[in-house]
Design brief:
single chain, mainly alpha, ABC transporter involved in vitamin B12 uptake, BtuC, 14 helices, 2 strands, globular
């Protein structure tokens, strides 16, 4: 494992130095790689470790983005503070969703439908609130400063997004090796059996969805202050949910580094194909490519690409069975 940690330290050192050698466009791609790795990891906490599939996770991104943006524009509150307020709102909504889903035993497709319904209802509600920009969305005023979470150039966003990704990896590692993580995995493998052995499935499901929602919402504030525009259709829509869940699915669901590997593969592919197909008036075709890739991975690599990455690195790093 010493070799493994030295390898991680080397990778981190390279990532810390990369902005010195990258142009603005490539730097922007790395920002999105880290961003989607963080989002995928946040979704992974719920679905990867408890087995409850959410297809409405964009809900929490939207809540984080809209809460921090509204508080900043209406009350002058720094987004650094507003993002935590957004996290509290996201947790409250997630607990409502979780109560309905877990208390009444909704599983599989029924839980999926519930998550989609919450996201869609929220999208419609936000679309009709004038103070939140209604159907037009909200353009953020560009006032570059640390307190406003706005910067000139991509380098500050690069390091913030990198910090988010590292935080998510550490958080998931701590969860996985804790009693909470073991109970979550037991629920994923067989919820009825876990309950028979004394695991309070409702309690740990609620904890998992609260952690997942709070982490996801923080990314919403980052997105708003990186793009400078938020819209209910883009932030609460199914498209964003699909984008974020494909990273852990392709990289390796229920693993620590799967979402990171998935993002390093999919995000550059997304940027390249999006730009290429947009020139021919074929916007959105990259999502079809995503779908095909996801199907191939599920069929031929059900445990994700991380299995093959570990197999390739094992002779050098002497990896154990951990993720």
């Amino acid at each position: 494992m010493t070799r493994f940690y030295l390898f991680l330290a080397s990778v981190l050192a390279v990532l810390l130095l990369l902005p010195l050698f990258l142009d603005k466009y490539v730097l922007g791609i790395f920002v999105m790689i880290f961003y989607y790795a963080y989002l995928g990891q946040s979704w992974n906490v719920l679905t990867g470790y408890t087995g409850h599939i959410s297809l409405g996770h964009a809900l929490y991104i939207g809540i984080g983005a809209y809460t921090s943006t509204y508080l900043a524009q209406a009350f002058g509150l720094s987004p650094w503070i507003g993002m935590w307020t957004g996290a509290l709102v996201a947790v409250a909504v997630a607990l409502c969703l979780g109560y309905l889903g877990f208390r009444f035993g909704l599983r599989g497709v029924y839980f999926v439908i519930l998550t989609i319904a919450f996201a869609e209802i929220t999208r419609l509600v936000v679309s009709h609130i004038e103070a939140l920009g209604s159907f037009s969305g909200i353009f953020l005023d560009f006032k570059p400063s640390f307190s406003n979470f706005q910067f000139r150039g991509n380098i500050p966003y690069y390091y913030i997004a990198l910090g988010f990704m590292i935080f998510s990896v550490i958080a998931v590692r701590l969860i996985e090796t804790s009693k909470l993580g073991r109970f979550m995995v037991a629920i994923r493998e067989d919820e009825d059996a876990a309950q028979a052995l004394g695991v309070n499935a409702f309690k740990y499901n609620m904890i998992a969805i609260a952690i997942s929602a709070s982490m996801t919402s923080l990314a919403g504030t980052f997105y708003a202050n990186y793009i400078f525009y938020i819209h209910p259709d883009s932030l609460f829509g199914m498209g964003l949910s699909i984008e974020l869940i494909l990273r852990p699915i392709i990289g390796g669901l229920g693993t620590i580094f799967g979402p990171v590997i998935g993002s390093f593969i999919l995000t550059p592919l997304s940027e390249i194909t999006r730009a290429y197909f947009a020139k021919g008036g074929l916007e959105g075709l990259h999502l079809i490519i995503y779908g095909i890739l996801a199907i191939l991975v599920v069929l031929f690599m059900p445990k994700g690409i991380i299995v093959y990455v570990k197999r390739a690195l094992n002779p050098i790093l002497k990896l154990d069975e951990k993720n």
